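User: quick one, sequence for these tokens?
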């Protein structure tokens, strides 16, 4: 299975915030944004694995800025690292100023997807070879995030989390 670059999985979804998608403050519902991010991450995972990919976890979500009614929202998702059958997807959310067209990063998230066969069993995915500095940074951090998740779930002993230990030694 040939390795791939993160850019091969890049998925960009752009949409408008409509009244039915907002809360009483006229800002996009958080759940609506989560759904948009999940769809973009799903496509990115499928592009990388060329298999059905299912959401395994939402590892991190930062709602840094509210997104107002009428805003143009762009969700960009890309595989940041792949493991045996799973893929970490890093998602950036941008809002576009209506007058200037300038984009501002509003939110970000990290999802984990697993590639599966037609029976729902996990299947191997290609490796990722990061190219840009940001891709390399996210690639390296992904292993630390995975180890932390496994330690917290009791599936990895803390003394076996080599990448985490390296942060403190």
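Assistant:
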């Amino acid at each position: 299975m040939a390795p791939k670059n993160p850019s091969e999985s890049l998925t960009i979804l752009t949409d408008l915030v409509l009244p039915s998608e907002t809360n009483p403050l006229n800002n996009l519902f958080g759940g609506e944004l989560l759904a948009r991010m999940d769809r973009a991450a799903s496509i990115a995972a499928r592009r990388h694995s060329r298999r059905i990919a299912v959401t395994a976890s939402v590892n991190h979500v930062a709602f840094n800025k509210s997104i107002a009614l009428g805003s143009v929202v762009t969700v960009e998702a890309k595989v940041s690292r792949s493991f045996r059958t799973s893929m970490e997807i890093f998602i950036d959310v941008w809002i576009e100023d209506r007058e200037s067209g300038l984009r501002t990063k509003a939110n970000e998230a990290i999802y984990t997807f697993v590639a599966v066969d037609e029976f729902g069993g996990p299947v191997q995915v290609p490796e990722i070879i990061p190219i840009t500095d940001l891709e390399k940074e996210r690639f390296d951090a992904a292993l630390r995030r995975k180890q932390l998740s496994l330690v917290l779930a009791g599936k990895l002993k803390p003394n076996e989390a080599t990448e985490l230990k390296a942060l403190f030694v």
